[in-house]
Amino acid sequence: MAEKILEMRNVTKRFGKLVANRSVNFDLERGEVHALLGENGAGKTTLMNCLYGIYNPEEGEILLHGKPLKLSNPKDAIAHNIGMVHQHFMLVPPLTVLQNIVLGQECRITPMNLSRARAQVEELCEKYHFQLELDTKVADLSVGAQQRVELVKALYRGADILILDEPTAVLTPPEVEGLFEILQQFVSMGKSIIIISHKLWEVKRISNRVTVLRSGEAVSTVMTKDVEEADLAAMMVGKRVSLEYEKTPVTTAQNILELKDVCAKGAHLASSLKHVSMHIREGEVLGIAGVDGNGQLELSEVIMGLLPTQSGSVYYRGEEITKMPTRKRIEQGFAHIPEERMTQGLVMNFSASENMIINCYDRPPFTKNHLFNSRQVKENGKKLVEEYDVRPRDPDALARSFSGGNQQKIIIAREFAQDPRLVVAVQPTRGLDIGASDFVHQKLLEQKEKGAGVLLISADLDEVLAVSDRVLVINEGEIMGEFVPGEIDYTEIGLMMGGTKRTNSKAGETA
Amino acid sequence: MICMNFGGTQVRVERKKRTESPLFQKVLGIGIALLLVILVTGIIIALSGKSPIAAFQCMIKGAFGTKNSVAETLIKAVPLLLSGLGLTICYRTGLTSVGSEGQIIMGGLMATIVGVNLGGLPAPVVIPMAMIAGILGGGIWAGIAGLLKAKLGVSEVINTIMLNYVATYLVAYLVDGPIQEAAGHYPQSDLLGKNAWLPIILPGTRMHLGVILAAVSVVLVYMLLWKLPLGYQMRAVGNNPIAAKTNGINVARNMVLAMFLSGAFAGLAGSVEIMGIHHRLMNGFSSSYGFDSMAVALLGGLHPVGVTIAAIFFGALRTGANTMQRTLQVPVSLVNVIQGLVILFVLMQALLSRFTIRIIQRNAKEKGAKQHA
C-alpha cells in the first residue's frame, strides 16, 4: 500500500445558494497520477482551488502527511510544496522564461541577479529533460512550451504535489504525448499528480486512479485499470448518453455560401487565412475541426463581414458579398453564435429581452414608423424565454445574471427566431454541460432540417463528428482536408489537425 | 474578494453578481449620500463660526423662497440641464466627454454672431436661427472629438479637454478683436438685436423661454434613448461595443453621432444662456456650467428625469449660496465644497453598492451584517 500524502475529508464549498462541492472525499498517494473526472461545472476546479488555497472550504479538512493543513492563500500551498498549473496560464508574456519561472520567488528579476536561479533552473531542466530556452520571451513561445514553463515554475517552487487543470485542452496531439511523457517521469521520481479532465481517453491513458465528480459530489474513486471508458462516462453523466444524432442526408447541391481562395490577416500569422476555398450547401452542417487558434475565428469573421478579406471572394446564394457590411448580411439571413458569449454575444447590462433583439431591433415589430416599441421587445422576450426554456424564465433579468448555458440559450433564441438561412456557430457549447450542449446541437440540427446551411466551428472533435455532415480540418489558416464523419479514424484526423495534408485517394470521390 | 482581519473579526468585501439594483435601493443610496453631504457641510459651516441651521435655512429661502428666487434657480438649472442631457447621451454611448464647457462656449459664440448680425429680423425668425447656429456650433465642436475617437482612436477625454481650451481662448481673442463691441471699451461683443433676446415667460423675473425648451429637451432625450431604435443602438454600443459590432451595429458612426448630439445640447445651452441672460458674448459667460453638468448627469443617474432633479438641485445651490453670502457672510465658495462632496459621496455609494460587505466573527457562526450603503 502506497503512502497517502494528502487527504481531503468532507470538503464542502458553497457560492451563495450553489453548492460547488458537497462533502467531497479525496486522497492522493505518493507517486500516482490521480485524475479528477467530471463534466463542466461538476466542481473539479473548485475542489482543486480549495487545495491550492484560492478558496476556503466552508466545511471539511485537508490533511497533508496526516497533519491538518490550513491554507488561506496560494502562497501557503506553495510553501507546503503544492503546485498548480491553471487552465489559463499565469505567465507574463513580455518577460523571459527564466524571469517567469522565478517570479514571486526572487525579489529582483534583472538578468544579473538571476545567475544562481539560472543554475537551479538549468539543473531542473536537465533532470527532467526539458528543453527550454531560458532567455526567450514567453510571448514568443508556443502554447505547449508555455505549459512546460508553468511546469518548471511549479518544480522550481519545490512542488511535490502537482495539480494540472485541463492541461491538454490547448495542445495538439503530439504535444499531448509529450506532456504525458513528462508526467510519467515526474511520477517515477516520486512526485504526485492530480489531473483535472473531462476527456475519458486521456484519463484512461495517463492516470492510476480516478475520482469522478458529478454535480459537486464525489461519485466514486476507482483504479483506472479496472474500468472501461464507457463505465467512466456512465459515472460522469449519471446516465448513458451517446453522442449520436439522426441526420438527414443532404439532398441538394445548392450552395448557400461559397468562399473562393480567401486570404485574410488574423491575430497571428498562424491564424491568418491562407487561400481558403470551401462551400456550404443548403440543409448541410459543415464542421470545421482544428486546434484552437488556427484561423477558425478569422474564418467566422470573414463570413460575417467582421474581418476584411485581403484577396479572394465570398458568395452567398450565388451573389458576391465579399464587401457587404455585417448588418446587411444579418438582414439577409445570417445568424451568428459567436465564440465569446459574454463579450461578443451579449450586452451583459441589458435584460434578456433587450439582448434578444440586437440583431433585429430596427425592424418590425420592434421598430414601426421609426418608433422603438419596448412593449414588443418584452413580449418577444417572454415568448422566446418560454420557447427556448431559458431559466430563470425572467426576460427582464440582466443577461449577466444568467448561467452560461442559459446565456447561450438567449443568443440561440435570438439568432434562430429570425429563421436564418446560414448559421455560423463558433464553439457553441464551450463551457456548457452535456445537457445544455445537447440542446444546442438539437437546435443546430433543427435549422439544418429547415434547410439552412450550418457552419459549426469547434475545437471539440467529438462534437464536430457527431453533428456535421461533412468536416473540413483547418491548421494554421489552411484547409488540410475534407472527410465525412465515420469515413476515417481519429489518427488520420489528428494528423490533419497537426498539419499533415490529406493525400489519400478518396479525396477525388468527395470533391 | 478582499479579506481583512481585525483581531478576531474578518471583514470580507465581495463583488455582487448583479449590478442593477432595484430603484428604491438606488434612491436610498443617493438619499444617504446627500444626508452625509449636509452633515459634513454643516460641520464645515460650524467650524467657521456660523450656525449651520441658519445657513441652510438661508440657502433654501434663497433658492425657493420667492417667485423671483424660484425663477433664478430655474434659469440657472437650464444650462446645467441641457448640457447634462447631452452628456447623458454620450455617457450612455460609452464616451467620457469632458467637453461640455467648450461646446457651450462655441454654441454661445455662434448664437451671438447670428443674433448680433441678423438681430433686425423678426423674432420668430432670428431666435430659431440663432439657436440652430448654437446647436451646430456645439455639435460640430463635439463631433470633432467624436471623429478623432472613432477614426483614430484618440481618447475623447483628452481631446475634449483640449478643445475646451481652444474654445475658451478663441472666444477670448474674438471678443478682444474681430467681434468686440463697437464702443471698444470692454472685451465683449455688441448686444444682440432685441429680437434675438429670448422672451420672458414670467413677468417681473428673468425667467425666459429657455426653461420651456429645457423641459421639451428632457422629453426628447428620453424619447431618443428609449423610444427610438437609435437610442437602443447607442446604449448597446455604450454597454458593449464588441457585441454591438459583432451584431453589425456601426460603432464608429454611433460614437460620432452621440458626440454630435451631446455637443448640440451643450451648444443649445450656450445659446440660451447668451440669448436669455447675458444678451452679449463675454469671457467666462458659461461660469463652468459645462463642468458642473458632468456632475449633474452622473448624479441624475444618466436618466432624463434624474438629470432634471439634479440640475434643479445644483441650480438651487448656486442661487441659495448667493443669498447665504449676502445674509450670513458665508462665502459662496462653500457651494464648490458642497458640490464636491455631493460628487464624492454619490460616486462612493455607487461604487459601494456593487459590493457586499460582511463582518464575520471568527469562531462564531457567520454573522451576516450585510451593508449596501
TrEMBL record, chain A:
Record flagged with keyword Nucleotide-binding: yes
Domain of life: Bacteria
GO MF, one example: ATP binding
InterPro entries: AAA+_ATPase, ABC_carbohydrate_import_ATPase, ABC_transporter-like_ATP-bd, ABC_transporter-like_CS, P-loop_NTPase
Domain ABC transporter: 6-240, 257-501
Keyword Transcription found: no
Signal peptide: none
Record keywords: ATP-binding, Nucleotide-binding
PANTHER family, sorted: CARBOHYDRATE TRANSPORT ATP-BINDING PROTEIN MG119-RELATED, GUANOSINE IMPORT ATP-BINDING PROTEIN NUPO
Protein name: ABC transporter ATP-binding protein
UniProt source species: Pseudoflavonifractor gallinarum
UniProtKB/TrEMBL annotation, chain B:
Keywords for this protein: Cell membrane, Membrane, Transmembrane, Transmembrane helix
Name by which UniProt lists this protein: ABC transporter permease
Membrane-topology descriptor: Multi-pass membrane protein
Localization per Swiss-Prot or TrEMBL: Cell membrane
Residue ranges of coiled coil: none
This protein's record includes keyword Transmembrane: yes
Residue ranges of the TM segments: 27-47, 74-92, 104-121, 127-148, 207-225, 255-275, 296-317, 337-357
Major location category of this protein: membrane
Pfam families cross-referenced by the UniProt entry: BPD_transp_2
Cell membrane found in the keyword field: yes
Organism of origin: Pseudoflavonifractor gallinarum
